[in-house]
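Inverse folding, one chain.
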Protein backbone atom coordinates (compact mmCIF):
# COMPACT_ATOMS: atom_id res chain seq x y z
CA UNK A 1 0.00 0.00 0.00
CA UNK A 2 1.67 3.20 -1.13
CA UNK A 3 1.69 6.63 0.42
CA UNK A 4 0.07 8.03 -2.71
CA UNK A 5 -2.99 5.85 -2.21
CA UNK A 6 -3.94 7.92 0.84
CA UNK A 7 -3.22 11.37 -0.59
CA UNK A 8 -6.27 13.41 -1.39
CA UNK A 9 -7.12 16.97 -2.29
CA UNK A 10 -8.79 18.54 0.74
CA UNK A 11 -11.25 21.37 0.52
CA UNK A 12 -11.51 24.18 3.04
CA UNK A 13 -14.34 22.42 4.92
CA UNK A 14 -12.97 18.86 4.81
CA UNK A 15 -12.17 17.27 8.15
CA UNK A 16 -9.09 15.15 8.72
CA UNK A 17 -9.80 11.59 9.86
CA UNK A 18 -7.54 11.02 12.86
CA UNK A 19 -6.39 7.84 14.53
CA UNK A 20 -4.99 7.82 18.08
CA UNK A 21 -2.21 5.37 18.99
CA UNK A 22 -1.70 5.41 22.74
CA UNK A 23 -4.81 6.24 24.79
CA UNK A 24 -3.21 7.24 28.08
CA UNK A 25 -3.60 10.61 29.74
CA UNK A 26 -1.48 12.56 27.27
CA UNK A 27 -2.93 10.82 24.24
CA UNK A 28 -6.56 11.41 25.16
CA UNK A 29 -5.73 14.94 26.26
CA UNK A 30 -4.18 15.91 22.93
CA UNK A 31 -6.97 14.06 21.11
CA UNK A 32 -9.32 16.38 22.94
CA UNK A 33 -7.33 19.35 21.68
CA UNK A 34 -7.67 18.05 18.12
CA UNK A 35 -11.42 17.72 18.62
CA UNK A 36 -11.65 21.30 19.94
CA UNK A 37 -10.44 22.59 16.58
CA UNK A 38 -13.57 21.05 14.99
CA UNK A 39 -11.33 20.11 12.08
CA UNK A 40 -11.01 16.36 12.72
CA UNK A 41 -13.04 13.20 13.09
CA UNK A 42 -11.47 10.58 15.35
CA UNK A 43 -12.17 7.39 13.44
CA UNK A 44 -9.92 4.90 15.27
CA UNK A 45 -8.03 4.47 18.53
CA UNK A 46 -5.44 1.93 19.66
CA UNK A 47 -3.95 0.86 22.97
CA UNK A 48 -2.56 -2.27 24.63
CA UNK A 49 -5.09 -1.83 27.47
CA UNK A 50 -8.72 -2.34 26.47
CA UNK A 51 -9.99 -0.20 29.34
CA UNK A 52 -8.21 2.81 27.83
CA UNK A 53 -9.62 2.02 24.39
CA UNK A 54 -13.14 2.07 25.83
CA UNK A 55 -12.57 5.42 27.55
CA UNK A 56 -11.11 6.96 24.38
CA UNK A 57 -14.04 5.73 22.30
CA UNK A 58 -16.41 7.55 24.62
CA UNK A 59 -14.93 10.77 23.23
CA UNK A 60 -14.60 9.47 19.67
CA UNK A 61 -18.17 8.56 18.84
CA UNK A 62 -18.33 6.06 16.00
CA UNK A 63 -14.63 5.26 16.08
CA UNK A 64 -13.13 1.77 16.03
CA UNK A 65 -10.85 0.28 18.68
CA UNK A 66 -7.69 -1.74 18.07
CA UNK A 67 -5.07 -3.46 20.21
CA UNK A 68 -2.42 -3.47 17.46
CA UNK A 69 -1.39 -0.20 15.79
CA UNK A 70 -0.76 -2.00 12.50
CA UNK A 71 -4.46 -2.86 12.25
CA UNK A 72 -5.37 0.78 12.80
CA UNK A 73 -2.96 1.81 10.03
CA UNK A 74 -4.75 -0.50 7.59
CA UNK A 75 -7.91 1.60 7.89
CA UNK A 76 -8.51 3.66 4.76
CA UNK A 77 -10.63 6.15 6.72
CA UNK A 78 -7.57 7.24 8.74
CA UNK A 79 -5.68 10.15 7.15
CA UNK A 80 -3.40 11.04 10.05
CA UNK A 81 -2.36 9.58 13.38
CA UNK A 82 -1.58 11.01 16.79
CA UNK A 83 1.11 8.89 18.46
CA UNK A 84 1.21 9.21 22.25
CA UNK A 85 2.66 5.87 23.32
CA UNK A 86 5.55 5.53 25.75
CA UNK A 87 8.82 6.62 24.14
CA UNK A 88 10.06 3.12 23.28
CA UNK A 89 7.22 2.74 20.76
CA UNK A 90 7.58 6.16 19.08
CA UNK A 91 10.00 5.11 16.34
CA UNK A 92 8.23 1.87 15.41
CA UNK A 93 4.76 3.42 15.31
CA UNK A 94 5.91 6.54 13.47
CA UNK A 95 7.80 4.65 10.77
CA UNK A 96 4.92 2.21 10.29
CA UNK A 97 2.46 5.09 10.00
CA UNK A 98 4.59 7.04 7.55
CA UNK A 99 5.13 3.95 5.41
CA UNK A 100 1.36 3.40 5.45
CA UNK A 101 0.87 6.85 3.95
CA UNK A 102 -0.41 8.57 7.08
CA UNK A 103 0.54 12.04 8.23
CA UNK A 104 1.85 11.93 11.79
CA UNK A 105 1.70 14.03 14.94
CA UNK A 106 4.02 12.31 17.43
CA UNK A 107 4.59 13.33 21.01
CA UNK A 108 8.05 14.31 22.09
CA UNK A 109 10.68 13.04 22.43
CA UNK A 110 10.65 11.74 18.87
CA UNK A 111 12.99 8.91 19.83
CA UNK A 112 14.07 6.66 22.67
CA UNK A 113 17.57 6.25 21.19
CA UNK A 114 19.67 8.76 19.30
CA UNK A 115 20.14 6.43 16.31
CA UNK A 116 16.38 6.15 15.68
CA UNK A 117 15.97 9.73 14.50
CA UNK A 118 17.46 9.51 10.98
CA UNK A 119 15.26 6.50 10.18
CA UNK A 120 12.07 8.39 11.06
CA UNK A 121 13.19 11.45 9.09
CA UNK A 122 13.88 9.24 6.07
CA UNK A 123 10.46 7.58 6.31
CA UNK A 124 8.75 10.98 6.36
CA UNK A 125 10.72 12.28 3.38
CA UNK A 126 10.53 9.11 1.25
CA UNK A 127 6.77 8.90 1.72
CA UNK A 128 6.24 12.68 1.40
CA UNK A 129 4.31 12.80 4.66
CA UNK A 130 3.79 15.58 7.18
CA UNK A 131 5.35 14.69 10.53
CA UNK A 132 4.94 17.12 13.43
CA UNK A 133 6.68 16.49 16.77
CA UNK A 134 4.78 17.65 19.84
CA UNK A 135 7.18 20.41 20.87
CA UNK A 136 4.34 22.92 21.03
CA UNK A 137 6.47 25.95 21.84
CA UNK A 138 7.43 26.00 18.13
CA UNK A 139 3.91 27.27 17.41
CA UNK A 140 3.48 29.37 20.56
CA UNK A 141 2.58 32.95 19.70
CA UNK A 142 4.57 34.57 22.50
CA UNK A 143 7.60 32.35 21.82
CA UNK A 144 7.59 33.48 18.19
CA UNK A 145 7.10 37.10 19.28
CA UNK A 146 10.00 36.88 21.74
CA UNK A 147 12.29 35.48 19.07
CA UNK A 148 11.44 38.19 16.58
CA UNK A 149 11.52 41.15 18.96
CA UNK A 150 14.35 40.24 21.32
CA UNK A 151 16.55 37.53 19.77
CA UNK A 152 16.64 38.32 16.06
CA UNK A 153 16.58 42.07 16.73
CA UNK A 154 19.83 41.80 18.69
CA UNK A 155 18.42 43.41 21.83
CA UNK A 156 20.12 40.77 23.97
CA UNK A 157 23.49 41.40 22.36
CA UNK A 158 25.79 38.37 22.19
CA UNK A 159 24.02 35.44 23.87
CA UNK A 160 26.52 33.34 25.78
CA UNK A 161 24.29 31.25 28.02
CA UNK A 162 20.91 29.57 27.73
CA UNK A 163 19.71 28.40 31.16
CA UNK A 164 16.84 25.93 31.40
CA UNK A 165 15.23 24.19 34.34
CA UNK A 166 12.19 22.09 35.19
CA UNK A 167 11.68 21.22 38.83
CA UNK A 168 9.07 19.17 40.65
CA UNK A 169 7.41 17.53 37.66
CA UNK A 170 4.94 15.20 39.34
CA UNK A 171 4.44 12.98 36.30
CA UNK A 172 7.72 11.28 37.19
CA UNK A 173 6.49 10.34 40.68
CA UNK A 174 3.21 8.63 39.78
CA UNK A 175 2.29 5.51 41.73
CA UNK A 176 0.45 2.66 40.04
CA UNK A 177 -3.08 2.19 41.41
CA UNK A 178 -3.82 -0.87 43.53
CA UNK A 179 -6.10 -2.17 40.78
CA UNK A 180 -3.00 -2.95 38.71
CA UNK A 181 -1.27 -5.09 41.35
CA UNK A 182 -2.29 -8.06 39.25
CA UNK A 183 -2.09 -7.67 35.49
CA UNK A 184 -5.57 -7.07 34.05
CA UNK A 185 -6.65 -9.79 31.64
CA UNK A 186 -7.41 -7.16 28.98
CA UNK A 187 -3.91 -5.62 29.06
CA UNK A 188 -1.37 -6.96 26.55
CA UNK A 189 1.87 -6.74 28.53
CA UNK A 190 3.95 -8.42 25.84
CA UNK A 191 2.81 -5.86 23.29
CA UNK A 192 3.48 -3.02 25.72
CA UNK A 193 7.08 -4.23 26.04
CA UNK A 194 7.41 -4.42 22.26
CA UNK A 195 11.11 -3.89 21.38
CA UNK A 196 12.20 -3.93 25.05
CA UNK A 197 13.59 -7.10 26.61
CA UNK A 198 11.18 -9.29 28.51
CA UNK A 199 10.43 -8.82 32.18
CA UNK A 200 7.50 -10.05 34.26
CA UNK A 201 4.51 -7.80 34.86
CA UNK A 202 5.48 -4.71 36.80
CA UNK A 203 2.63 -2.25 37.39
CA UNK A 204 5.00 0.58 38.23
CA UNK A 205 6.97 0.25 34.98
CA UNK A 206 3.69 0.24 33.06
CA UNK A 207 2.12 3.15 34.91
CA UNK A 208 5.19 5.39 35.34
CA UNK A 209 7.29 4.43 32.31
CA UNK A 210 9.08 7.81 32.38
CA UNK A 211 11.06 6.69 35.43
CA UNK A 212 12.66 3.76 33.60
CA UNK A 213 15.37 4.22 30.98
CA UNK A 214 14.20 1.15 29.04
CA UNK A 215 10.99 3.01 28.20
CA UNK A 216 11.93 6.69 28.27
CA UNK A 217 14.77 9.10 28.93
CA UNK A 218 13.64 10.40 32.30
CA UNK A 219 13.46 14.12 32.92
CA UNK A 220 16.12 14.84 30.30
CA UNK A 221 14.24 13.67 27.21
CA UNK A 222 10.79 14.29 28.67
CA UNK A 223 11.42 17.87 29.79
CA UNK A 224 14.75 19.18 28.48
CA UNK A 225 13.70 18.26 24.93
CA UNK A 226 11.02 20.96 25.14
CA UNK A 227 13.41 23.57 26.44
CA UNK A 228 16.44 22.81 24.28
CA UNK A 229 14.11 22.97 21.31
CA UNK A 230 13.11 26.50 22.37
CA UNK A 231 16.81 27.38 22.62
CA UNK A 232 17.49 25.90 19.19
CA UNK A 233 14.59 27.89 17.76
CA UNK A 234 15.83 31.13 19.32
CA UNK A 235 19.47 30.62 18.32
CA UNK A 236 18.80 29.07 14.89
CA UNK A 237 21.36 26.42 15.89
CA UNK A 238 20.82 22.77 16.74
CA UNK A 239 24.40 21.52 16.66
CA UNK A 240 25.93 20.82 20.10
CA UNK A 241 29.57 19.79 19.97
CA UNK A 242 30.00 18.50 23.52
CA UNK A 243 27.95 17.29 26.47
CA UNK A 244 28.55 16.59 30.12
CA UNK A 245 26.10 15.61 32.86
CA UNK A 246 25.87 14.57 36.48
CA UNK A 247 23.08 13.35 38.70
CA UNK A 248 21.56 10.22 40.11
CA UNK A 249 18.74 8.54 41.99
CA UNK A 250 19.45 10.46 45.17
CA UNK A 251 16.10 10.27 46.97
CA UNK A 252 13.39 8.21 45.26
CA UNK A 253 14.89 4.75 45.56
CA UNK A 254 11.80 2.95 44.33
CA UNK A 255 13.36 0.91 41.53
CA UNK A 256 13.53 3.74 39.01
CA UNK A 257 16.53 3.84 36.69
CA UNK A 258 16.18 7.46 35.51
CA UNK A 259 17.83 10.01 37.83
CA UNK A 260 15.61 12.04 40.12
CA UNK A 261 18.17 14.86 40.03
CA UNK A 262 20.16 15.80 36.93
CA UNK A 263 22.32 18.58 35.49
CA UNK A 264 23.26 18.74 31.79
CA UNK A 265 25.64 21.11 30.02
CA UNK A 266 25.87 21.38 26.22
CA UNK A 267 28.41 23.45 24.27
CA UNK A 268 27.76 24.96 20.83
CA UNK A 269 30.29 25.97 18.17
CA UNK A 270 29.45 29.70 18.09
CA UNK A 271 30.59 30.26 21.67
CA UNK A 272 27.60 29.66 23.92
CA UNK A 273 26.38 26.96 26.27
CA UNK A 274 22.99 25.56 27.27
CA UNK A 275 22.24 24.07 30.66
CA UNK A 276 19.42 22.00 32.12
CA UNK A 277 18.70 21.47 35.79
CA UNK A 278 15.95 19.27 37.22
CA UNK A 279 15.03 17.64 40.50
CA UNK A 280 11.95 15.82 41.72
CA UNK A 281 12.63 16.93 45.29
CA UNK A 282 9.69 19.05 46.52
CA UNK A 283 11.89 21.96 47.58
CA UNK A 284 11.88 23.42 44.06
CA UNK A 285 9.13 23.83 41.49
CA UNK A 286 8.83 25.66 38.20
CA UNK A 287 10.10 25.49 34.64
CA UNK A 288 11.59 28.13 32.36
CA UNK A 289 14.17 29.12 29.77
CA UNK A 290 16.45 32.12 30.27
CA UNK A 291 18.55 33.54 27.45
CA UNK A 292 21.45 35.58 28.82
CA UNK A 293 23.22 38.11 26.61
CA UNK A 294 25.63 41.01 26.87
CA UNK A 295 22.83 43.58 26.54
CA UNK A 296 20.04 41.93 28.49
CA UNK A 297 18.22 38.72 29.25
CA UNK A 298 14.96 37.04 28.26
CA UNK A 299 13.02 34.81 30.67
CA UNK A 300 10.24 32.74 29.13
CA UNK A 301 7.70 30.18 30.30
CA UNK A 302 4.57 28.75 28.72
CA UNK A 303 2.61 31.56 30.32
CA UNK A 304 4.67 34.66 29.55
CA UNK A 305 8.01 36.20 28.71
CA UNK A 306 9.97 38.91 30.51
CA UNK A 307 12.71 41.04 28.98
CA UNK A 308 15.30 42.75 31.17
CA UNK A 309 17.66 45.34 29.73
CA UNK A 310 21.13 45.68 31.21
CA UNK A 311 20.40 49.38 31.76
CA UNK A 312 20.11 50.04 35.46
CA UNK A 313 16.58 50.93 36.52
CA UNK A 314 14.95 49.97 33.23
CA UNK A 315 11.58 48.30 33.93
CA UNK A 316 11.07 44.79 32.58
CA UNK A 317 8.84 44.17 29.58
CA UNK A 318 6.24 41.48 30.36
CA UNK A 319 4.12 39.81 27.67
CA UNK A 320 1.50 37.17 28.50
CA UNK A 321 0.82 34.19 26.26
CA UNK A 322 -2.40 34.87 24.32
CA UNK A 323 -3.27 31.18 23.85
CA UNK A 324 -2.26 27.72 25.04
CA UNK A 325 0.47 26.39 22.77
CA UNK A 326 -0.79 22.84 22.19
CA UNK A 327 -3.85 23.99 20.26
CA UNK A 328 -1.67 26.38 18.26
CA UNK A 329 0.63 23.47 17.40
CA UNK A 330 -2.27 21.18 16.49
CA UNK A 331 -3.71 23.87 14.24
CA UNK A 332 -0.34 24.26 12.55
CA UNK A 333 -0.22 20.51 11.92
CA UNK A 334 -3.70 20.51 10.41
CA UNK A 335 -2.77 23.49 8.24
CA UNK A 336 0.27 21.55 7.00
CA UNK A 337 -1.82 18.46 6.25
CA UNK A 338 -3.80 20.60 3.82
CA UNK A 339 -0.99 22.78 2.42
CA UNK A 340 1.69 20.02 2.39
CA UNK A 341 4.15 22.59 3.73
CA UNK A 342 6.54 21.54 6.50
CA UNK A 343 5.05 22.11 9.98
CA UNK A 344 6.66 24.22 12.70
CA UNK A 345 7.87 21.15 14.61
CA UNK A 346 8.97 19.15 11.59
CA UNK A 347 10.40 15.67 12.14
CA UNK A 348 13.97 16.80 11.42
CA UNK A 349 13.70 19.56 14.03
CA UNK A 350 12.27 17.04 16.47
CA UNK A 351 15.12 14.64 15.76
CA UNK A 352 17.81 17.27 16.38
CA UNK A 353 16.32 18.45 19.67
CA UNK A 354 15.82 14.89 20.90
CA UNK A 355 19.42 14.11 19.91
CA UNK A 356 20.68 17.00 22.05
CA UNK A 357 18.81 15.57 25.03
CA UNK A 358 20.11 12.07 24.32
CA UNK A 359 23.66 13.41 24.45
CA UNK A 360 22.96 14.56 27.99
CA UNK A 361 21.70 11.13 29.02
CA UNK A 362 24.59 9.33 27.32
CA UNK A 363 27.09 11.58 29.10
CA UNK A 364 25.31 10.86 32.39
CA UNK A 365 25.35 7.09 31.85
CA UNK A 366 28.93 6.95 30.60
CA UNK A 367 30.13 9.41 33.26
CA UNK A 368 32.31 11.32 30.81
CA UNK A 369 32.40 14.41 28.64
CA UNK A 370 31.20 13.61 25.12
CA UNK A 371 32.58 15.14 21.96
CA UNK A 372 30.03 15.24 19.15
CA UNK A 373 30.14 15.86 15.40
CA UNK A 374 26.70 17.41 14.71
CA UNK A 375 27.12 17.26 10.93
CA UNK A 376 27.87 13.54 10.79
CA UNK A 377 25.76 12.97 13.94
CA UNK A 378 28.49 10.89 15.55
CA UNK A 379 29.89 10.72 19.05
CA UNK A 380 33.63 11.11 18.71
CA UNK A 381 36.36 9.29 20.60
CA UNK A 382 38.11 11.24 23.35
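Residues assigned per position:
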Amino acid sequence: MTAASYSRVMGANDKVNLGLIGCGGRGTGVMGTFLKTERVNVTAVCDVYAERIDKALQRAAGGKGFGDHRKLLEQKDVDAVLIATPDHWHAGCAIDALNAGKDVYVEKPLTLKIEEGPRIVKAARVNNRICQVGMQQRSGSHYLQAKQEYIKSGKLGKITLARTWWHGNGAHLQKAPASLAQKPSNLDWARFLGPVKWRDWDPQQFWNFRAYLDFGGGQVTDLFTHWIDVVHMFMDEDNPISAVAAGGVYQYKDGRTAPDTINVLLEYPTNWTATFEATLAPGLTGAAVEMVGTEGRLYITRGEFQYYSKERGAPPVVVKAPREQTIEHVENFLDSVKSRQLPNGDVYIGHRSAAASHLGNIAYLQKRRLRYDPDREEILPL
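The first strand starts at residue 16 and ends at 21. Residues 347-366 form the longest helix (20 residues).
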